[in-house]
Amino acid sequence: MQILLIFIVVLGGMGLSVEAGLLGPLGNQVGELWATFSIFGVGAALTFLLMLFFSPRNSASFFAQPPLLLIGGVLGPIYVIVLTVVTPVIGVAMTMIGILAGQVFKSLIIDHFGLFGTTERKIDLKRIIALAFIVLALFFMTKG
Fold first, then answer.
1. To pair with 94 at 20 to 30 A between CA atoms, which of 28, 40, 88, 131?
2. In angstroms, rounded to a whole number, what is the distance separating the alpha carbons of residues 73 and 52?
3. Which of 105, 132, 90 minimizes the C-alpha distance to 15?
4. How far apart are CA 17 and CA 131, in angstroms?
5. Where are the domains of the chain?
6. Nearest-5° angle of CA 101, CA 106, CA 111?
7. pLDDT tens-digit profile of 34-49?
8. Gap between the Cα atoms of 115 and 108, Å rounded
9. Distance, CA of 99 to CA of 81 (rounded, Å)
10. Is residue 82 a contact partner of residue 8, using CB atoms and an 8 Å limit?
11. 118: closest CA among 36, 27, 34, 43?
12. pTM over 0.90
């Protein structure tokens, strides 16, 4: 179970790297604010559809919550869902190391191939060693 959750966290981290890779070129095309709006708009629409079909009907009203509690929405719905589900099971440190491992792994690929219009930065030995240390940290943090 823990391995599956770590895998999900790593995938969540990969998604953040892809999102970052997409926002730059999209921002260049439509402007940074419109690009940001489009990412959060799609996420909000998806979350709304999931709420319609899977959210308990007897939960507290969204509109009755203090405004400060709603600021967390800027972090991105997928990231928040992964953190919400996985952190209580594997812990904060393991979650963050998993997120970091996924971000670094996917970022190396995005940089290496210049995906999404980013500048190519070839994978070299130092980058591979850095990723290896992050993966090693993930290994050392697992229980039993």
1. 40
2. 18
3. 105
4. 14
5. 2-55+76-141
6. 125
7. 877 787 788 889 988 9
8. 10
9. 13
10. yes
11. 27
12. no
